[in-house]
Design brief:
Blueprint lengths: L3 H4 L13 H30 L7 H18 L1
Amino acid sequence: MTDMADSLGVTDHGAHRAPGQREYWAYFGLIFAATLPLACLTWSLTALRQMRLPEKGPIRRAWSQANIITPIIFSA
């Protein structure tokens, strides 16, 4: 059976957008929420130990960790 939609020039442009984008951001949000408490803890311990504020704040640390972990999950 032939798909006539392609030969007629009819395409579904909505289907070509990133198919797993919602799923990716859902996982990213979960991972970010899970890493945020630990990032706050390590940030505060580093600040107390060095007696100065670290360069990266806790939110930036958690965002960075989620940005590293999430693509690894989707590449597997």
